[in-house]
Write a structure and sequence with these properties.
Blueprint (H helix, E strand, L loop, with lengths): L1 E5 L6 E2 L7 E2 L3 E2 L27 E5 L2 H14 L6 E3 L10 H4 L1 H10 L7 E5 L8 H4 L5 E6 L5 H8 L5 H13 L3 E9 L7 H13 L4 E6 L4 H11 L4 H8 L4 H18 L2 E2 L13 H8 L5 H7 L1
Parallel strand pairs: 1-5, 3-6, 6-7, 7-8, 8-9, 9-10, 10-11
Antiparallel strand pairs: 2-3, 4-5
Helix pairs in contact: 1-3, 7-10
């Protein structure tokens, strides 16, 4: 794994994603190397080819100083916007164990503490290391990207990411620590259209471990993602290839939308942004505000338990 230290000019960046006002990305690149990852486009900013995603990490060595400066400016403005760690990297990938940039950012947020909504999104149980800091934040939630309950499928598509079963256990542990949790079910793996029982297994498990809400997103098959994903898929049986080749069609999405609606109702899970996401039709700014206002405080969670 190529690891290079770089200098960042800013850390709190205005978000284009629904559900977050600002994003914080301590690293460029992601060692997990998931084949479907939309964030692989980030390689162009560090002159890395698209097919090298997963083989490099650029560490923002001055991240803590710059983040503290950016946060002071934000606080002086009187605003309390929502902050997401992270949008185009995983804040708890392996190098975090050495550099601890995510932990340092959370410590800065907890110092006063920051009064606005703070959200974590990761695929790593390493987030459990920072429960002590997370519990100091008045309005925080931790999300795990979980795409399946089948560790074989997870290993096939998510390469070096922690197994799906470990992520589900981490969600349960976080909830047991009194933290609000959510799941990001994205991308929706194409085979779920033909195996709805496998998708139900996932929603049943998320409900069992206390997840109250989920983001759900259809697979993004833009050309730069297909460039990495399809050479692997093309080695699979013809039936598997056919499922993925048809995953960009509207009838595929509509069929999965119907299954999702039934599972949400059956397992009492709230759908964030009130729709299954699709990259060509993301919700508006008004929807972001709607989600931000639904994040409960730690005090609320403790009262519920």
């Amino acid at each position: 794994m190529k690891t290079i230290e770089i200098v960042a000019k800013s850390m709190l960046v205005k978000s284009k994603l629904p559900g977050a006002d600002y994003v914080v990305n301590p690293y460029v690149g992601c060692a997990f190397g998931c084949l479907y990852c939309y964030a692989s486009f980030m390689g162009r900013f560090v002159k890395e080819p698209i097919n090298n995603w997963g083989n490099y990490i650029y560490v923002k060595s001055n991240a803590l100083d710059v983040f503290e400066r950016d946060l002071v400016r934000l606080r002086n403005s009187g605003a309390k916007p929502s902050i997401l760690l992270s949008s185009v990297t995983d804040p708890y990938q392996g190098v975090e164990g050495k550099y601890q940039l995510t932990r340092g950012i959370l410590q800065i947020l907890a110092r006063e503490p920051y009064p606005g909504p703070v959200s974590i999104l990761t695929k790593s149980p390493m987030v459990l290391r920072d429960v002590d800091i997370l519990r100091q934040l008045p309005c925080v939630e931790v999300g795990m990207t979980v795409t399946t309950t089948d560790d074989k499928i997870s290993r096939f598509l998510e390469v070096r990411a922690p197994s799906a079963s470990r992520r589900i256990k981490a969600l349960e542990a976080l909830r047991n620590q009194g933290l609000e949790t959510y799941a990001f079910v994205g991308p929706l793996l194409p085979h779920f259209r033909h195996e709805p029982a496998a998708l139900e297994d996932l929603f049943r498990e998320l409900a069992r471990v206390g997840v109250g809400s989920v983001f759900v997103e259809h697979i993004n098959l833009r050309p730069y993602i297909r460039e990495r994903l399809f050479p692997i898929i093309d080695k699979e049986p013809a039936a598997v290839q056919s499922v993925y080749q048809g995953a960009g069609k509207s009838d595929h999405r509509k069929a999965l939308d119907g299954v999702i609606a039934e599972l949400l109702k059956k397992y009492g899970l709230a759908l964030r942004l009130d729709q299954v996401l699709y990259h060509d039709n993301l919700p508006t700014k008004e929807a972001r505000t709607h989600v931000k206002n639904r994040i409960p405080t730690n005090k609320t969670i403790k009262k519920e338990q």
